[in-house]
Every structure is written in structure tokens, then in C-alpha cells.
Amino acid sequence: MMSRVHHENLVKFIGACKDPLMVIVTEMLPGLSLRKHLTTIRPKQLDPYVAIKFALDIARAMDRLHANGIIHRDLKPDNLLLTENQKSVKLADFGLAREESVTEMMTAETGTYRWMAPELYSTVTLCQGEKKHYNNKVDVYSFGIVLWELLTNRMPFEGMSNLQAAYAAAFKQERPNLPDDISPDLAFIIQSCWVEDPNMRPSFSQIIRLLNEFHFTLQQPSPSMPLEPENEPEAITSNGTITDFSTRNKVKFSFIRHLFFSKRTKS
């Protein structure tokens, strides 16, 4: 799969061999993983312009995979590598990636618990290796968690073990708490990505469009002039639910709202 899908935000495949050992050779990215980078600067958060830039890099890489019928199934900061100048992100680790097929039943409970979509579980504990049908929207859920991390620089489901986090997401419909000061634009994107019904989640092409529109409103950070936080209208309740939007936001997201409501009506 790596040899036939190329994109500037996918780690470049160079070659592979089986003898004397099974080896895959890729480009070297000395900028560390996104996980290590976030841990290094914690508790400081990424500049919003940088965070959304990274999110766009990830979304573009995922969009290319999905366009080629590939599900990554393990999207998380550990599998996102920074370039040497730490200005771009590339997606790596295709060990769990699979080609998507409408009729194929794939292994359940693949990936890493904190970032796994709830449909990878069932109301009855799945046996290891059991097969279950799901689609590429499992990657969209994982992206929603990663975007939340980019904006908060916190571990999702803090204070829980991996299994507790998985149970909370799958059976109690819990999600990481959204910051009180988050932009309604970004809150809407995140909540759309991790909504319970996979069919209600946007595609990565839609996510890219939404993030691009928001990115254009941000000022690129300058070393000599730190950004002042922009005051946002109060549109989020304490439990992270979107309750209202400005007129500009309503217009901006009308197309994706229409998509979600039309799908809900059909279902």
C-alpha cells in the first residue's frame, strides 16, 4: 500500500526486502513524533495557526488514503512525524492499514484504545480476532480526538486507564471535554468527527474545507509579535455541547449541517 500511494504528508516509501530480515525503508524524519513534540512543550499549547496547519496536513494525508480505498485504523499522535523544521506533519505506520471493501469483515478492536471509534466495539465483549463490519469513518473519529489534542495539548480521557477510556467512549458516549474558550467553528468540526453515528461524520474532503476556512481567519505567528487570543462568542455549554452560532458561522457550516440532517432523515 505504501508503494502505490504518494502524498507530501505521507511518509515516503523507499523500498523493502525479505532476506535476511523483513525490512521496510522509508524517508527519515528527525523532527520527532507529534506525541513527543506535544509532551516536550506541555503545559504550553500550540499556537492556533500551527495547530490547524498540522491538522490540515493530517486531514490531507487521510483524504489521499481514503481516496485510494485504504483505512489507516491507527491514527494517533505517535504515528504522526514532524519534518526536521517542525513545520509539517507526515503520517506513518501502516501496520494496521487495510484496503476497504463493502463486503469485507475486518478485525475488531484494532488500533489504540483512546483513539478508537466506538463502532469497533459491540455491546458484548468481542473475542480477540473477531470480525466486524465498519468503514473509513473510524479514521474520522480518531482524527477528531487528534484535533482535540492539537488544540488542548492534553491526553484524551485523562485519569482513565486505556480500557476505561474505551468503555467510556463506546458504552457511555463520553468524549474529552471541550475547552470553554474554544472557537465554535472548531468545536463543531471536532464534535462532527466524533459523533456516535459513523454515517453522520464528515469526509476528510469536507474536514479540509472547514479547516481551510478557519485557517484563513488566523494570523501566522511572528517571533516578534505574539498573537493575542481572539474573543469568541459564547456558544459552548459546560459539557461541550454547541448551543448557538454567529450568523457568519451559520452560513459557513450550512452545507455540512444540511448533509448531516439529510442523512438523518434518510436513516
Commentary on this structure:
The protein is mainly α and 267 residues long. The protein has a single domain, classed as Transferase(Phosphotransferase), domain 1 (Orthogonal Bundle). 36% of the residues lie in helices and 9% in strands. It is built from eight helices and eight strands, in the order ββααββββββαααααα. It has helices at 34-41, 48-67, 137-152, 162-171, 184-193, 204-215, 247-252, 254-266, and strands spanning 13-17, 23-26, 70-71, 80-82, 89-91, 98-99, 106-107, 131-132. The strands form four sheets. It has a two-stranded antiparallel ribbon. Strands 3-6 form a two-stranded antiparallel ribbon. β1 and β2 (23-26) form a beta hairpin. It is globular.
Please describe the structure with a list of short key phrases separated by commas or semicolons.
single chain, 267 residues, two-stranded antiparallel ribbon, globular, Kinase-like_dom_sf, ATP binding, Ser_Thr_protein_kinase, Ser-Thr/Tyr_kinase_cat_dom, Protein kinase domain-containing protein
> Which residues form runs of ≥5 with pLDDT under 50?
101-111, 225-252
CATH homologous superfamily designation: Transferase(Phosphotransferase) domain 1
What does the main sheet amount to?
2 strands, antiparallel
Mean pLDDT level: 79
Side-by-side strand order of the widest sheet: 1-2
Helical coverage, percent range: 25-40%
Tally of discrete structural domains: 1
CATH topology: Transferase(Phosphotransferase), domain 1
Distance between the amino and carboxyl termini? 34 Å
| General shape | globular
By DSSP, the count of extended strands is 8
Give the SSE order as H and E letters: EEHHEEEEEEHHHHHH
